[in-house]
Specification:
Layout: E1 2-5, E2 8-20, E3 23-36, E4 39-52, E5 57-66, E6 69-77, E7 83-89, E8 92-98, H1 107-117, E9 124-131, E10 136-152, E11 155-166, E12 175-179, E13 185-192, E14 195-200, H2 204-207, H3 216-220, E15 222-223, H4 230-233, E16 237-242, E17 257-262, E18 265-270, H5 298-308, H6 314-328, E19 331-332, H7 341-347, E20 349-350, H8 352-365, E21 370-382, E22 385-399, E23 402-406, E24 417-423, H9 427-433, E25 441-446
């Protein structure tokens, strides 16, 4: 299959299904290449799924590679019915047990379910899918649109058009697929950063034809209706943002961001951190290590403790860590892709995502709950564009009774940071949060009539850039500990 974005070929996909006795083995490869300004970003995902002929899961392997870093997940059914699952993130391995989610299907099970429900127009049903790489279950609502003649590179085919949406996000963007009588996908279309990503069945020569460059960074930028000077961004700001009626709310409430729905879309007010009565506070996962935020790695723990020294409160300790990470990542490298905290600590390279995972890990290493925020930030000039909001990532730490933001990539947090999602550092959550960017239009940015909050900000100054003084145990730029 050829992979295109807005009609420009960026890669290829392969799907093979082999029946071996009472087992079916499906292999899938998606290999494509994007640009971030002038830097190439190769992306590759692979999967191997072993199932019974009835679609029962038996074993799986899934991997994702971005800019040289690979995440691999493998699982197989044990005699007691559970799955033993191993996960490796660029050499950092872990093993655990998984109770298979009820009715969750892998590749062959999904194909059989599609065929079983038939292709009569108007048919609707729900399918439970299992994402082996994320280790997550998703309930998918499917609607049979009807039969259509589809133009493919090899010629026209009459196919069955199905539309998929997530049950949990019925107003979210849909994925359209066209399958043959066997339930095999011949075409699919989905939104990607405001563009259209399409997979088209074709012969090998077509699939492996030369690729073209597509700059996803420019595609993900959102224009600002006005220049936002520094003194204005230090205050609370109110945004009037237009979002199509058929799209779900792309914004999240945080201690610093208030979201109010209107007929035209949403009004956001962003300012100093506040206590939210409906905020349950940090979860256990906000304090725990994971494959991307290795907060128990000895070198990260040692560095974090040395940086904070004997600071008396969490506010000061996070401020010290923020200043350290701002100076420690010596090379701003868009080609890294998405590195883990430990890899970032060792290489001292990366962009905002690497800043965020390292700062989050160091906060957790000294007992402060942290989470990673994905969203947008205003830039007067960036990658040849002026007055734009660009995709960005930063950290929130739970301090006293509220979430407080720290941005080590820019060196300061202000009211031009628009939050779209919060998570644990998993890169796929980050990329999925950016899916709404093509539907966002910022119509107005101004100061609220009544500045928020009315009381002084207790955290004023904690994100102010200060001189960087490295601890003694960290590696030199580009080296290893």
């Amino acid at each position: 299959m050829a992979v295109t974005i807005d009609g420009r070929k960026v890669g290829h996909a392969e799907i093979h299904r082999i029946v071996d006795g009472d087992r079916v083995v499906t292999t899938q490869v998606l290999d494509y290449h994007l640009m971030r300004w002038k830097t190439g970003l190769p992306l590759r995902t692979e999967g191997r799924f072993e199932e019974s002929r009835a679609g029962a899961p038996l074993a799986f392997t899934a991997s994702a590679t971005s800019a040289g870093q690979t995440t691999t997940v493998e699982g197989f059914a044990r005699t007691d019915g559970t799955f033993q699952v191993s996960r490796d993130v660029d050499g950092q391995a872990s093993v655990g047990l998984l109770t298979w989610p009820t009715a969750a299907l892998l590749s062959e099970g999904q194909r059989l379910d599609i065929v079983r429900h038939g292709f009569a127009g108007g048919t609707t049903y729900t399918m439970r899918t299992f994402d082996a790489l994320k280790q997550e279950v998703a309930d998918i609502a499917l609607t049979v649109v009807g039969d259509e003649v589809v133009e493919l590179p090899s010629g026209n085919e009459t196919l069955h058009h199905l539309r998929q949406t997530f049950v949990a996000r019925p107003q979210g963007a849909a994925i359209d697929i066209w399958v043959d009588d066997r339930g095999d996908t011949r075409r699919s279309v989905r939104p990607m950063l405001g563009k259209r990503m399409e997979l088209l069945a074709c012969d090998e020569a077509c699939a492996h034809a030369p690729d073209q460059d597509v700059d996803i960074l420019r595609a993900a930028m959102v224009g600002s209706p006005r220049t936002i000077p520094r003194d204005m961004s230090d205050a609370a700001l109110r945004y009037t943002i237009e979002v199509p009626r058929d799209r779900r709310n792309p914004f999240v409430e945080t201690g610093e961001q208030e979201v109010v729905a209107h007929d035209y879309g949403y009004q956001l007010t962003i300012g100093p951190p506040q206590v939210r009565k409906d905020d349950d506070g940090p979860t256990p996962g906000d304090a725990a290590p994971n494959p991307w935020v290795q907060s128990t790695a000895p070198e990260i723990v040692e560095a974090a403790r040395e940086v904070v020294g004997r600071s008396g409160n969490d506010r000061d300790r996070m401020a010290r860590l923020r200043r350290f990470v701002s100076g420690y990542i010596a090379i701003n490298d868009l080609g890294v892709g998405y590195a883990s905290a430990l890899e970032t600590f060792q290489t001292r390279r990366g962009d905002c995502t690497e800043h965020a995972v390292l700062l989050a890990a160091m906060g957790r290493a000294i007992g402060i709950s942290t989470r990673i925020v994905s969203g947008l930030v205003y830039m007067p000039r960036y990658a040849g564009a002026s007055r734009v909001f660009v995709p960005h990532t930063w950290v929130q730490a739970w301090i006293k009774d509220r979430w407080v933001s720290f941005d080590s990539a820019i060196g300061r947090f202000d009211a031009t940071h628009i939050a779209l999602a919060v998570g644990d550092g998993d890169p796929w959550r980050f990329f999925s949060s950016l899916g709404a960017l093509g539907s966002i239009t910022i119509r107005k940015v101004d100061l609220p009539f009544r500045q928020m909050p009315t009381r002084p900000d207790p955290f004023q100054g904690m994100n102010r850039p200060e001189p960087y003084h490295p601890p003694t145990n960290v590696p030199a730029s580009g080296g290893k500990p």
